[in-house]
């Protein structure tokens, strides 16, 4: 396993930060950042990108090719039970003696009992 990757951001080498400045006097450059490999980034895109901005630049530049890896021509669906309206009442009482109430909608994923 590599100890680092070069950041895959398409504009990483154009950001004006001092940590990217390399080269000798008179021939300085802004260089793509190295991304050290560690436990924190091993299972995320941060393995290949130094920042969210670099990830976004890459994704925006390559979005059509990325989409073609897993095209979605149909929506996905998660089976749910019929949503239930649940009325809540707080301990707060208004000056007219009524309680503060609100309603939420409870949505639960359907449990499949047919699987063995
Ligand atoms: Zn970068």
What does this structure look like?
By secondary structure, the protein is an alpha+beta fold. It is 16% helix and 24% strand. The protein has 1 helix and 6 strands; from the N terminus they run ββββαββ. The protein has one helix spanning 52-69; strands at residues 4-6, 21-22, 29-30, 34-36, 84-93, 99-106. The strands form 3 sheets. Strands 1-4 form a two-stranded antiparallel ribbon. A two-stranded antiparallel ribbon has the order 2-3. Strand 2 (21-22) and strand 3 form a beta hairpin. The structure holds zinc ion (ZN). Zinc ion binds at residues 7, 9, 12, 33, 49-51, 54. Zinc ion (ZN) is lined by residues 7, 9, 12, 33, 49-51, 54.
